[in-house]
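Please annotate the following for my students:
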Amino acid sequence: MKVLSPVGEVDTRSSIGLAPRRKSLTGGVIGLLSNGKPNAYTLLETAFRQLQGRLGPFEAVRYEKHVIAAGSGSASPPWLLDKLASGTVAVIAGSGD
């Protein structure tokens, strides 16, 4: 019999830390990535409007992962992650459960 432990080990030596924070999003583009669940759009649009009110005017690009990938629980395809990483200053991923 093989007994497995649910306790994971984290290798902290390869930690890269947090990305630098911007004081303003003015003139930038943020990504809004919905998982396609019923309230995800509402959640993301509300966050978008609140951030615009606090961090200045900026644009948003919107993607629905469930349309691009194989469903709301699937991983985003690498091409989408690359597009978001190269074309946005921030991404908000929303789950509308």
Q: What stands out?
A: The first strand starts at residue 29 and ends at 34. Residues 29 and 59 are 5 Å apart (CA to CA). DSSP finds three helices and three strands in the chain. The mean pLDDT is 83.
